[in-house]
Design a protein that fits this description.
Growth Hormone, Chain: A; 2 domains; mainly alpha; disordered N terminus; cell membrane; 0% strand; transmembrane helix; membrane; MFS; 404 residues; 17 helices; MFS_trans_sf
Length: 404
């Protein structure tokens, strides 16, 4: 009984000296999403610039993340993950300081966004890879959950902070990047030096690609493409379902969607315990829960039921978000994890990009009911993925140690 209780006490196995810097620097992985509140003010500052150019200030970091994260995976064989995190924090700090020095040049703002995007792209790959380098087994899954929870909480804090800072001048929102050097010092002191990844290109590459492109990495990357495509259907269809269905207005859409962030934080914090129960079927459960949520939203007669569907969707999405990288960590050796994660994240990003095309291609099977067909198409994809994932885990991944 004592051993059983100990095994369920998954958070006692976390090395907090390592976990705390991870939970801090991961905020800068997507900190720039908090700057959406100042976009209108930037447009006022540059009235002659096109709307597309102004939007680039906010979208460039995300656009750069795909190629940069892949490059980061390759560079991990030449530099340690800790060095790359430190570099990304320095680059983001410099990018954040540019508007404070010169906020009258749109070109300088674009340069700022490019530098921030460079830092974010590196961190997207390295943050999860560092978890894999310092934690193993179920503890790695627990650490992934804590990382995601910390990111969600601190991004919410950043969003509020940038809003208040911008009251005295929109460029003052960039003051939040003064936290980057503080996090850099904590990371430099607390995080172990770590190791370089296996060489993929150039002299000494050897069998590096074989260690990266394992059956698991290839499978979960392809799976992530379709999971992301079906997952993103919530955001592209929920507003139409509520407004066109006569169930509410834009404020109602916000209310139905806002629960996702709260649920993400809660599920991320308890993911270690969920993993102990569902073990290697965590992804199958996550996708299945999302399919149920979509079917509830389709059948919902009122806003309350759609909100319940949104909350259930948030549970599945949060589990999927945390589990995806964790599965990659189990699918390849530690010194190949950076590029493995980068490949998986790239397929995820591509899945989001092509989501409308994938969903609409399947939605036609369910008639021409607009948004309802979209949700039905996404649910159909998810049900197929659940079946495939259960078969894979049962037949081809018998030796999995996930959740043990």
């Amino acid at each position: 009984m004592t051993n059983e209780k100990s095994s369920m006490n998954v958070y006692k196995q976390i090395n907090w000296k390592i976990m705390i810097p991870i939970m801090l620097f991961v905020t800068f992985q997507s900190a720039f999403t908090a700057f959406s509140s100042v976009l209108a003010s930037i447009a006022e500052q540059f009235p002659h610039a096109s709307a597309t150019t102004i939007q680039m200030v906010l979208t460039l970091p995300s656009t750069m993340s795909i190629p940069v994260s892949l490059c980061a995976g390759l560079l991990a064989s030449y530099f340690t993950k800790k060095q790359m995190i430190e570099f990304s924090l320095v680059v983001e700090f410099i990018g954040g300081m540019i508007p404070l020095v010169n906020h009258t040049s749109l070109g300088m703002l674009i340069l700022s966004s490019c530098l921030i995007g460079l830092g974010q792209g590196i961190m997207i790959t390295m943050a999860s890879a560092i978890v894999g380098e310092n934690f193993t087994g179920t503890t790695s899954g627990v650490a992934m959950g804590l990382k995601q929870a910390a990111s969600s909480v601190l991004i919410a804090v950043f969003t509020i902070a940038t809003g208040y800072l911008a009251l005295s001048g929109w460029w003052h929102a960039y003051y939040v990047y003064f936290l980057a050097p503080v996090v850099l010092v904590i990371t430099a002191i607390s995080l172990p030096k770590g190791q370089k990844d296996v060489r993929i290109v150039g002299k000494g590459a050897g069998s590096g690609w074989k260690k990266v492109l394992t059956r698991g990495v290839v499978y979960y990357s392809l799976l992530s493409f379709f999971m992301a495509a079906a997952n993103f259907a919530f955001y592209t269809n929920i507003a139409f379902r509520i407004v066109n269905g006569g169930l509410g207005d834009s404020a109602s859409v916000g209310m139905a969607s806002a629960w996702n962030q709260i649920v993400t934080i809660i599920i991320s914090l308890i993911f270690g315990y969920i993993l102990k129960v569902v073990k290697k079927y965590a992804l199958a459960v996550a996708v299945g829960v999302q399919a149920i949520a979509y079917l509830i939203i389709v059948a919902a007669p009122n806003l309350s039921m759609i909100t319940i569907g949104g909350i259930i969707y948030g549970v599945g999405a949060a589990m999927q978000m945390v589990a995806a990288c964790y599965y990659i960590l189990e699918s390849c050796e530690q010194d190949a994890a950076s590029l493995g994660i980068a490949i998986c994240m790239t397929f995820t990003s591509l899945g989001i990009t092509f989501s409308p095309y994938v969903i609409n291609a399947v939605a036609g099977i369910f008639g021409n009911n607009g948004v309802t067909s979209g949700f039905m198409g996404a649910a159909a994809i998810q049900i197929v993925l659940v079946v495939i994932e259960i078969i894979y885990e049962t037949v081809l991944n018998k030796d999995s140690q996930i959740g043990n």
